[in-house]
């Protein structure tokens, strides 16, 4: 008894929900119930059966029928006299949406009744929306969007979308579409008819589109086509292959990725006999000073276009006696640009702060020969020999230059902290933005100016890959390096050039500095993944710099004091924190006997301190020779402090460190003792 009550409840619920409830499959019966006022009608009618075939009938109310119509407020329970009704019948669901007498039900369109509840027949859902001429309607299609097909073509999965519009009482076919394309939206006015055809075996349960309200578009329709990458789309004029409506306007809007280019080619077209006006296509092309650009259908169409663009087909008043026919089938091909000089580049600095990028000529020797101009253009309109882009905006640039190696780029960015309470322990990535790396001009310098409140915070630089200091004994052979220098006004101090592939894990500096990434070869583009520093704001310390070093077990690590060619500034101090693994011994060697410093006031000295035992040795850098090579079994510090030296007698320290396994050191000592 409880089961019977449950069955009745489900049936009533199905009616209330506009459902078409499929009973147990073994019963071979279906039930479709449509409430009053639903504006939905269901037609089950003969399809196109294969021959020869046995007759098949719809069994309803114990009668055999060849068709069945279900109207709002009716309920039908029916079955079929054959086991393969999908080969004999189709079901058509029509829904009328009246936007003339009341508000439109805009939003996502539902499949009603649900496909899962319908009999397993080929199904066609038809929505017919009637609206005033001044009302615009927009069909929005979910990904994977739509692909238009021509006469005689079919869709691989059998699912098709047929879309029509209306001019007064005349229906106009916009096109037939499959899935997996570029068409994302179709805008029309005065009404729209949408038919979704689903094969009986397809389990799709969503319409895949929604309807939105728009203002009058003042033309037959607008089709939006969105490209995510390279590809092509074939599109056709309304009513194709029949004639385009007389004196109508149809527009296609194309959305193209900034790094790609679009070309238009007409595959098939015919022109009519015009009595008034002239048939034409109009392009709205970004950057063009003559928008809209007008072409005849016979003309060669634009190619290598950068950015979004519109294409419109305009009909004419045709000769009443001999109208002819206007129709157009065309293809839009989107691909990577073939000609570097025609590219338009989007440089997005909208999320950057306190940054500028300058593209300018490289310094060259003057020549008496004529040299063609080399220009950088902003928005394809304003061109000059150099161009500076600032942060906070997006910039579109192109190049008019016979040889782009004549240009280079220099960029600057300031990262500052004025409130030590807010910045403490915060970090920033020092990396060249991808929008700059994509440009076809070599990057020369990218400088970061790092500012901290005086005597409040210091800075720590941590590289993505450990760094090597550039010296004459061990030069940097990478395509780029970092120049680290003081940015304190009046202080001439640079810490050196550094490149990836060394043993320096961290550089700590006392106060304001600039970090400049400088490139030396076009191969920097391939090595760009190796670039990357992280700067952190850390508690203030008094030394000018601290280098944290973990020496290599195979190669000597060469280290030199800052300002090595001019000498360490007066009264400054620098330290090296040398890490020694537990199974290794560090071999420390100074390359000169003396530093050459002569003090005018104060003292210059060096401290070597074992970090574990705190034992330290102090050496006068003015009077004493530098220590002889020595072994260090634990991590240690090397610190130098300068005096106020006599001009020309500056402090310069140069040394190297090599790690050796402890067992090897023991063997060497035993050998010496035996000898």
Automatic annotation (TrEMBL):
Annotated ranges, domain CDCP1 second and fifth CUB: 109-213, 438-519
| InterPro entries found in the cross-reference section | CDCP1, CDCP1_CUB_3rd_6th, CUB_CDCP1_1st, CUB_CDCP1_2nd_5th, CUB_CDCP1_4th, Sperma_CUB_dom_sf
Instruction: Cite the SUPFAM superfamilies for this sequence.
Output: Spermadhesin, CUB domain
Ranges for domain CDCP1 fourth CUB come to 345-432
The signal peptide stretch is 1-29
Matching entries from Pfam families are given as:
CDCP1_CUB_6, CUB_CDCP1_1, CUB_CDCP1_2, CUB_CDCP1_4th
Record domain CDCP1 third and sixth CUB: where = 219-322, 542-656
- Coiled coil (residue ranges): none
- The residues that cross the membrane are none
Q: What keywords appear on the UniProt entry? A: Disulfide bond, Signal
> Residue ranges of the CDCP1 first CUB domain?
31-99
What protein name does the entry list?
CUB domain-containing protein 1 isoform X4
Q: Gene for this protein?
A: CDCP1
């Amino acid at each position: 008894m409880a089961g019977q009550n449950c069955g009745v409840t489900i049936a009533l619920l199905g009616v209330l929900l506009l459902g078409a409830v499929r009973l147990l499959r073994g019963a071979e019966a279906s039930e479709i119930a449509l409430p009053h006022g639903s504006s939905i009608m269901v037609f089950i009618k003969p399809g196109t059966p294969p021959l020869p075939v046995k007759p098949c009938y719809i069994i309803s109310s114990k009668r055999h029928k060849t068709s069945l119509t279900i109207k709002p407020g009716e309920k039908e329970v029916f079955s079929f006299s054959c086991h393969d009704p999908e080969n004999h019948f189709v079901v058509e669901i029509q829904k009328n949406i009246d936007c003339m007498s009341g508000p439109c039900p805009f939003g996502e369109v539902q499949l009603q009744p649900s496909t899962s509840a319908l009999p397993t027949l080929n199904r066609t859902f038809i929505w017919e929306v009637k609206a005033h001429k001044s009302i615009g309607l927009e069909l929005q299609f979910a990904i994977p969007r739509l692909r238009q097909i021509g006469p005689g073509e079919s869709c691989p999965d059998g699912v098709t979308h047929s879309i029509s519009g209306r001019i007064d009482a005349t229906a106009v076919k916009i096109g037939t579409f499959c899935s997996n394309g570029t068409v994302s939206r179709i805008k029309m006015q005065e009404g729209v008819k949408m038919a979704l055809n689903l094969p009986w075996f397809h389990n799709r349960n969503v319409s895949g589109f929604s309807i939105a309200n728009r203002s009058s578009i003042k033309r037959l329709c607008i089709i939006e086509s969105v490209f995510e990458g390279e590809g092509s789309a074939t599109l056709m004029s309304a009513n194709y292959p029949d004639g385009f409506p007389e004196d109508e306007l149809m527009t296609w809007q194309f959305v193209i990725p900034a790094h790609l280019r679009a070309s238009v080619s007409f595959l098939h077209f015919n022109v009519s006999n015009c009595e008034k006006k002239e048939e034409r296509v109009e392009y709205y092309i970004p950057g063009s000073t003559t928008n809209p650009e007008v072409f005849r259908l016979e003309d060669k169409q634009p190619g290598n276009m950068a950015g979004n663009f519109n294409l419109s087909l305009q009909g004419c008043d045709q000769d009443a006696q001999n109208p002819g026919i206007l129709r157009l089938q065309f293809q839009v091909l989107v691909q990577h640009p073939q000609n570097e000089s025609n590219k338009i580049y989007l440089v997005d600095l909208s999320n950057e702060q306190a940054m500028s990028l300058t593209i300018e000529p490289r310094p060259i020797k003057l020549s008496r020969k004529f040299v063609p101009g080399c220009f950088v253009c902003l928005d394809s309109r304003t061109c000059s020999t150099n161009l500076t882009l600032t942060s906070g905006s997006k910039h579109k640039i192109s190049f008019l230059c016979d040889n782009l190696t004549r240009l280079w780029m220099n960029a600057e960015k300031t990262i500052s902290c004025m409130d030590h309470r807010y910045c403490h322990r915060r970090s920033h990535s020092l990396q060249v933005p991808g929008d700059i790396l994509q440009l076809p001009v070599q990057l020369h310098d990218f400088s970061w100016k790092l500012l901290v409140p005086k005597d409040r915070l210091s800075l720590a630089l941590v590289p993505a890959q450990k760094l090597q200091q550039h010296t004459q004994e061990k030069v940097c052979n990478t395509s780029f390096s970092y120049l680290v220098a003081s940015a304190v006004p009046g202080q001439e101090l640079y810490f050196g050039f550094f490149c990836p592939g060394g043993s320096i894990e961290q550089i700590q500096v006392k106060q304001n500095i600039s970090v400049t990434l400088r490139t030396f070869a076009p191969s920097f583009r391939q090595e760009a993944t190796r670039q990357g520093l992280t700067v952190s704001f850390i508690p203030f310390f008094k030394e000018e710099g601290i280098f944290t070093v973990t020496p290599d077990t195979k190669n000597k690590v060469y280290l030199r004091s800052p300002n090595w060619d001019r000498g360490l500034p007066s009264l400054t101090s620098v330290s090296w924190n040398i890490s020694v693994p537990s199974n290794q011994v560090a071999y420390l060697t100074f390359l000169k006997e003396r530093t050459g410093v002569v003090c005018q006031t104060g003292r210059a000295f060096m401290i070597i301190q074992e970090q574990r035992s705190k034992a330290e040795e102090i050496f006068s850098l003015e009077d004493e020779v530098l220590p002889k090579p020595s072994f260090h079994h634990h991590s240690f510090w090397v610190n130098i402090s300068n005096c106020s030296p006599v001009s020309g007698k500056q402090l310069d320290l140069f040394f190297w460190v090599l790690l050796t396994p402890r067992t090897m050191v023991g063997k060497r000592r035993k050998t010496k003792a035996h000898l």
